[in-house]
Design brief:
Number of domains of chain B: 1
Strand content of chain A: 15-25%
Shape of chain B: elongated
Number of helices of chain B: 13
Chains: A alpha+beta, B mainly alpha, C mainly alpha
Number of helices of chain A: 17
Oligomer: heterotrimer
Radius of gyration of chain A: 25 Å
Number of strands of chain A: 19
Radius of gyration of chain B: 22 Å
Largest sheet of chain B: none
Largest interface: A-C, 55 and 49 residues
CATH superfamily of chain B: MetI-like
CATH topology of chain B: MetI-like fold
Number of strands of chain B: 0
Structural class of chain B: mainly alpha
Helix content of chain A: 25-40%
CATH architecture of chain B: Orthogonal Bundle
Distance between the termini of chain A: 37 Å
Strand content of chain B: under 5%
CATH class of chain B: Mainly Alpha
Helix content of chain B: over 70%
Chain lengths: 531, 301, 335
């Protein structure tokens, strides 16, 4: 019933707009349905595009097109010298959205900020389980549950976070989607009415667009938030046309049924580029695909063996065959769009002869190994099976016999963490917050062994550099440390770094002002459309 | 579709005559004869695939991606029906695909026929609570749309051709069980069965040697239907990514891989589908002929 | 009659319990762990994992989970989706009208074309009309409909540009959807062109979905007609000099319709299976696509209850057909 009223009211608004000035509508052919509209419990980019990037805002934001942090709902912040206390000064007069299902009576204040985090980390918060079984994967995944000691309200517009130990990436975490600021007033109201689950269906935030309606698996409609604290969006209405099939998305874009779309199929890219009515934007994705050796199992505990295998595999051939030009060869564990990327490092050359010699020098003959190929497509790896087949062929040339194994995705993720795992595993990572710590510490630190460190690799010098960088808040200093860490990584070769995929974004020529985010999110607040 | 009509009891010693009669009626149906010839040709093609196919169906020619068929601009006679997105010869893939489709049909029909007959014989012959339980289980399987159930089964067993075949066999088996049971119930109390029973025939002998041969006609018709149905279902599972996995040249899987090219390269989409259609059509034509020839009721009218 | 209905119903109960066991059992032995899938590459700590398993109730013995599931079912609770956190029933109810609308159009196409074609073919047995339509019917019956759908898209959307590629209605139209049936809602909205837009989106998918039922119904009508025309009473009526139209229209057709109605009823299961493929091809937001997506996302509660709801619907339709059949044909009741 309520939905119906919403729709009626919204269509009245649309009719009104249509009667006056022509409303500007941007249709985005999105790749899937959002899981919900509360960003905190979810991990999928599709959900974030539809919720946190449109409806919500955060204390700090990533400046468009970069991973640099700029003020968001927090006007300014200070970090204590010991790196333990973060004090945020909130922007005054920020209004939550007014919709027909909620009218805020007060502006954003410290209570909202505290509530936004407390509900995720504190099991006793009445809103922690507002939907049965809900969990906050990113909050715990990024380690905020163990990182944050307390959050205090200093005054209405000042909030102080106290950490258990200095942690430089913390600030970047606050720019992430799960850290979106929600309205405590709205949550309390829903809770009092016994309709807490609506929090996930009828969102209220402070972002550039406000929610109008969602038709499951078909359409999401938004309109510009008239009270937005930042630059008002240029478009009046934003529509997400959910189209899961990439070929169909491309077809709709060509037919101007939508004006912009993500994730074109590699097969369509040339055709879309050639279309005179369309523009294609592209940039390297914030991801990496790798083949992780198990460095604790012989003979892969010998760096010479790992190096030899790295030199035996023709990575360019993989890029050509599997990515069809939609990826670049990786040499470092972090992608080139990330700060501290060490471009001075030289990749291991493709040299089967030298590789054969190195294996012989290491005393390894007649090597049998397993290559794990994941069963699913990921942003960094469109076809792991085909990649594994190419590696298999390359390794055969230096006399190494490789068997390809695969498991169901959940099993694969679990089994590959085993310290005694037999074989090298193909996997990858997509960055969350643009901080190098989010790659190197997660994937290669000593305490990741038996977990997300699939190489089971622990190097004391490398770890020391990571620890030092995490405890320093000076970016220049951190950059140097991470650059050194990449040198050690290359020398020790716990992985074969395979690729960074390229992200494409085709759009109509009428669309202006779109900026690709290196984090892979899609944001339309600065987009305009010309007739 | 398949009306379970029991055949009349044959007089002993007339097998040859029956065959002749069958052939006489089967030949009447021209479509069925065409279907049969096509099917025979298909079987030969499948057997001789390695000799007939001009290329290896899995080898990729990276210099010839999405080459159109030879009569189109840009096509070459090296690839008569063109190539797919990774440069594999479509003609060769289609020829090898026939092997998979026929294999799927044979395996599925064998499993479900044997399973269905045993289950149906047991249910019909013993009756009572055994019959009750068995038929309720069959009802449960039939309550689910077959493709949906097969889809979930494959998800349970893991995607792949073998598991797809098992899943399809499981969902098509109740039809055989029901037919067999109905036929057994119809035959059980006939004189010749009684006679055999009085003569002291064992249960096994009664079930398999005495009753079964007289229930075969509807089963044969159902088997042809299941054969074509299995090919269609396996292709559908392949299309949904749950059947044979690439690079296997199974027709449904080829279609799934070709989907993104629907507006760019018609041949990669059109040809595998056409192969499925023609094969299934031929088998169904044959099935129609078989039914007409085996079903005395229709002969009369 | 009541005894007959009760008899049929008593069959349903064990079948339904069997269905719950199958739906629950299959889904719980699906390999892969939904909790691990939620975490993806990130992984999770063993403590957090155990906590999640406990919250979702996956840590208890399987029979206990099953009883709990039944208990909830009896209270109309079909569980919550792991992915969307929404009640499965409400997701089902939002998406079901889309499938129903599609299936309804398909069955109408199939009946409106299939029955007359079948009757005519039977009356003109052996004519070119009979041969052509029955060949076409056999082709339709042999059709891989996912391929057929792609062909129609290539031709009508790609080459001719007559029909839209996917979806239920053009995004330009925006109105409340009280019934969930786009054709009705677009009329109710009073917006110009909305109905035409909804209809043009519906054309190709319903043709694709109608293909197999149409072929089956045409063939079945023809053979039922042939059989009835050969019966003694029709011959008698003919011999008595009743007009052929009367013979066909009143006697033959009515009796031939009995097996045809059964056939139509049986097509519901076929339609549900077809909906899986049709909806996937046309990005039609219905329950077929929902099930396929949920299977690949390992959304246990959705797959489980979705299977149950779909099987339940098929079962109820079959029951209705059964009863209808008994009503038209009293002989059945006593057998």
């Amino acid at each position: 019933m309520k939905l119906r009223n919403t729709l009626l009211a919204a269509s009245a608004v649309m009719a009104m707009l249509a009667g006056g000035v022509q409303a500007k509508t941007l249709v985005y052919c999105s790749e899937g349905s959002p899981e919900g509209f509360d960003p905190a419990p979810y991990t999928a980019g599709t959900t974030f595009d539809a919720s946190s990037r449109t409806i919500y805002s955060r204390l700090v934001e990533f400046a468009p097109g970069t991973t640099n942090l700029v003020p968001g709902l927090a006007e300014s912040w200070t970090i204590s010298d010991d790196g333990l206390e973060y004090t945020f000064k909130l922007r005054p007069g920020v209004k939550f959205q007014t919709t027909d299902y909620f009218t805020p009576t007060r502006d954003l204040n410290a209570d909202d900020v505290i509530f936004s985090f407390d509900r995720q980390g504190n099991k006793d918060n009445p809103f922690n389980q507002y939907v049965p079984g809900v969990s906050y994967e990113y909050y715990t995944g990024m380690g905020l549950d163990s990182m944050i000691k307390s959050i205090e309200k200093v005054d209405d517009l000042t909030v102080k976070f106290t950490l258990n130990a200095p942690n430089a990436p913390f600030l970047a975490d606050l720019g992430m989607d799960f850290a979106s600021i929600v309205s405590k007033e709205y949550a309390d109201k829903l809770m009092a009415e016994g309709k807490a689950a609506d929090f996930n269906n009828q969102p209220i935030g402070t972002g550039p667009f406000q929610f109008v309606a969602y038709q499951k698996d078909a359409v999401i409609r938004y309109k510009a938030n008239p009270d937005y604290f930042g630059t008002k969006p240029h478009i009046d209405d934003l529509v997400f046309a959910i189209t899961t099939d990439a070929a169909v998305r491309a077809q709709k874009l060509r037919a101007n049924e939508c004006q912009i779309m993500p994730y074109p199929a590699p097969a369509d890219i040339d055709g879309l580029k050639a279309d005179p009515n369309l523009t294609m934007m592209e940039q390297p994705g914030l991801n990496v695909a790798y083949l992780a050796y198990n460095t604790q199992v012989a003979p892969f505990d010998d760096v010479r063996v790992r190096k030899a295998l790295n030199m035996a595999i023709n990575k360019q051939a993989i890029i050509d065959a599997v990515f069809q030009g939609t990826g670049i060869v990786a040499k470092n564990p972090i992608p080139p769009t990330m700060w501290s990327y060490n471009d001075a490092i030289k990749d291991d050359p493709y040299d089967p002869e030298a590789a054969k010699q190195m294996l012989a020098d290491a005393g390894v003959t007649d090597l049998h190994m397993k290559i794990w190929a994941m069963p699913v497509q990921r942003p960094y790896m469109p076809n792991a099976r085909r990649t594994a087949e190419l590696m298999q062929a390359d390794l055969a040339k230096i006399g190494v016999t490789a068997d390809i194994v695969s498991y169901e995705w959940g099993e694969y993720l679990k089994k590959s963490t085993d310290v005694n795992r037999d074989g090298a595993v193909i996997l990858g990572w997509t960055g969350d917050n643009g901080d190098p710590d989010n790659f190197m510490n997660v994937l290669l630190s000593c305490n990741g062994i038996g977990g997300s460190n699939r190489a089971q690799w622990c190097d004391k010098d490398f770890q020391a550099l990571l620890d030092k960088a995490a405890a320093t808040s000076d970016v220049a200093e951190r950059t140097k440390l991470y650059e050194q860490a990449q040198v050690i990584f290359k020398e020790q070769a716990p992985w074969l770094t395979i690729d960074h995929s390229t992200v494409f974004m085709p759009m109509s020529n009428k669309v202006t002002g779109y900026v690709m985010s290196p984090l892979g999110s899609h944001d339309f607040s600065n987009v305009d459309i010309t007739e | 579709m398949a009306d379970a009509t029991a055949t009349n009891t044959p007089a002993p010693g007339t097998r040859r005559q029956m065959l002749a009669e069958f052939w006489f009626y089967f030949r009447e149906n021209r479509g069925a004869v065409y279907g049969m010839w096509f099917f025979i040709a298909l079987v030969i093609m499948a057997i001789l695939a390695p000799l007939l196919a001009p290329h290896d169906p899995i080898i990729q020619d990276r210099s010839a991606l999405l080459v159109p068929p030879f009569w189109e601009d840009g096509g070459t006679t090296n690839y008569l029906l063109g190539t797919d997105a990774v440069g594999r010869d479509i003609l060769s893939r289609l020829i090898f695909g026939a092997r998979y489709s026929l294999f799927i049909g044979i395996v599925v029909v064998t499993i479900s026929l044997v399973g269905g007959i045993v289950i149906g014989l047991v249910a019909g012959f013993f009756g009572g609570w055994i019959d009750m339980v068995i038929m309720r289980v069959m009802d449960v399987i039939l309550a689910f749309p077959s493709l949906l159930l097969a889809l979930v089964l494959v998800a349970v067993l893991g995607p792949g051709l073998t598991n797809a075949m098992i899943a399809i066999a499981i969902v098509s088996q109740p039809h055989f069980a029901r037919l067999t049971r109905a036929a057994v119930l119809g035959e059980k109390n006939r004189e010749y069965v009684m006679a055999a029973r009085v003569a002291g025939a064992g249960k096994m002998r009664l079930m398999f040697r005495t009753i079964l041969p007289n229930c075969l006609a509807p089963l044969i018709v159902q088997a042809t239907l299941s054969f074509s149905g299995a090919i269609l279902d396996a292709a559908a599972l392949g299309f949904l990514g749950m059947g044979a996995q690439p690079p296997t040249p199974e027709w449904g899987t080829m279609l799934a891989e070709a989907r993104e090219f629907i507006l760019r390269a018609w041949w990669v989409v059109t040809l595998p589908g056409l192969a499925i259609l023609v094969t299934v059509l031929a088998i169904n034509l044959m099935g129609d002929g078989l039914r007409d020839a085996l079903d005395p009721k229709l002969k009369r009218s | 009659m009541i005894k007959f209905i009760l008899g049929r119903l008593s069959y349903l109960i064990p079948t339904f319990i069997g269905i719950t066991i199958v739906a629950f059992g299959f889904v719980r032995i699906l390999p892969g762990d939904p909790v691990l899938l939620m975490a993806g590459e990130r992984g999770m700590t063993p403590e957090h994992y155990a906590d999640m398993m406990q919250r979702l109730g996956f840590d208890r013995p399987i029979w206990q989970q099953y009883l709990e599931y039944l208990w909830k079912l009896l209270h109309g609770n079909f569980g919550d989706s792991i992915v969307t956190k929404q009640p499965v029933l409400s997701d089902f109810l939002t998406l079901f009208p889309a499938t129903l609308e599609l299936a309804f159009c398909a069955i109408i196409i199939a009946v409106v074309i299939g029955v007359p074609v079948g009757v005519l073919a039977a009356l003109k047995r052996g004519s070119w009309f009979d041969q052509t339509t029955m060949t076409a019917a056999l082709v339709g019956y042999s059709m891989p409909i996912f391929w057929w759908g792609l062909l129609l898209i290539i031709f009508f959307s790609g080459i001719l540009g007559w029909t839209p590629v996917s979806g239920r209605i053009s995004l330009l139209y925006y109105f409340p959807t009280p019934t969930g049936f786009m054709l009705i809602d677009s009329l109710l909205s009073g917006q110009k062109g909305a109905f035409a837009s909804a209809a043009s989106h519906l054309v190709l998918p319903s043709i694709v979905l109608a293909t197999i039922p149409l072929a089956v119904i045409a063939r079945q009508t023809r053979s039922a007609m042939l059989e009835v025309l050969g019966e003694d009473y029709v011959r008698t009526a003919r011999a008595k000099g009743l007009s052929p139209r009367r013979v066909v229209g009143v006697h033959a057709l009515r009796n031939a319709m009995i097996p045809v109605i059964t056939t139509i009823g049986l097509q519901v299961g076929v339609l549900m299976a077809g909906a899986i493929l049709t909806e996937t091809i046309f990005s039609w937001p219905g329950i077929g696509k929902w099930m396929v997506d949920s299977i690949s996302r390992r959304d246990y509660p959705v797959v489980q209850s979705g299977l149950l709801l779909i099987a339940g619907i098929v079962m109820i339709v079959n029951l209705v057909v059964d009863l209808l059949y008994g009503l038209i044909n009293p002989r059945i009741r006593h057998s």
